[in-house]
Amino acid sequence: MFERLKKLKEYATSEHVAPISRRYFVMNGFDGAMTVLGVIIGALIAGITTTQELRLVLFSALGSTLAIGLSGTAGAFMAEKAERVRELKELEKRMMKDMESTAVGSEAKIAPIWVSIVDGGSPVLTALTTLVPLFFGMFFPEVIKPQVAGYLALIVSLTVLFTLGAYLGKISKRSVILNGLKMVAAGVFMTGILFLAGGF
Amino acid sequence: MAKITKLVLDVLKPSEKLSSSDLVGMLADLKGTDSVDLTVEELDKKVETISLIIEGTNLDVDLIQEKIEESGASLHSIDRIKATSSS
């Protein structure tokens, strides 16, 4: 078991897998954060005053989170698997040998599994982080009022977006703050559009 | 019993999926191996032909061949082999 985990880590951090997982992590983490942000803004526009309404919003957001996570996992696995099999077949033709039992073949098998974990896990992670204030609002309504919980979730969501952007800045060795702010700008832009639409 | 101390191998390896440094490092870590020298002889689409000069105090030819095949490369031929008497 330990040996297998070690092998998984080895392949996951290899130069052929790590860049793809990083890309998927940010791309789908962004999707998760923005989806939940959309649900929360929609709820704030409609108005959440009771715990019952907060519960409805929370479960809607959880449903979206689950759907995004599952679609990410299945989609990434199938797409990555198809690409890896195609690559391996082409390489087998060039090498004139069966590559299944080699290190290259093992990487082709493990890469889709790892990428699908990252692809499905990242939006769930960002979405659940964003929803933490709503959980508090539901379980401790006397401490955090439903509407306050919504606004707190909005702030957390923008913080999550900033963190994703900052991470991109770090891996591209560019400005962490500037990249973080670019992501926040996308969130603020969407917030603005939704609030404007809600005003009409 | 004589000990194999030098091997020159003709190997075909995937150019992107298996890095030269990984292959050289893996072979250099084998027991009885002192040094591994890799030269790229020919570059093709997705594969490259390399020449490996492996030197050591007691080279295990079968193990070296097995490790090369396991890594995803393919041993084409043993072009040169040197042994020294242990007596």
Describe what you observe in this structure.
The complex is a heterodimer of chains A (200) and B (87). Chain A is mainly α and 200 residues long. Chain A has helices at 2-12, 18-46, 51-95, 103-139, 146-171, 176-199. In chain A, 38% of the residues are buried. Chain A is elongated and about 65 Å long. The termini of chain B are close together. The mean pLDDT of chain B is 94. Chain B is 23% helix and 51% strand. Chain B is of the alpha+beta class and 87 residues long. In chain B, strands 2-3-1-4 form a 4-stranded antiparallel sheet, covered by helices on one side.
Provide a concise account of the structure shown.
Chain A is mostly helical and 200 residues long. Chain A contains 6 helices and no strands.
Mean pLDDT over the full residue set of chain B = 94
Helical residues, percent of chain A = over 70%
Gross geometry of chain B: elongated
Mean pLDDT of chain A: 91
Amount of beta strand of chain A:
under 5%
Low-confidence stretches of chain B: none
Radius of gyration of chain A: 20 Å
List the helices and strands and how they pair.
The complex is a heterodimer of chains A (200) and B (87).
Chain A: H1 2-12, H2 18-46, H3 51-95, H4 103-139, H5 146-171, H6 176-199
Helix pairs in contact in A: 2-3, 2-4, 2-5, 2-6, 3-4, 4-5, 5-6
Chain B: E1 3-14, H1 20-28, E2 33-43, E3 47-56, H2 61-71, E4 74-84
Relevant terms:
heterodimer; A: 200 residues; mainly alpha; B: 87 residues; alpha+beta; four-stranded antiparallel β-sheet; 2 helices
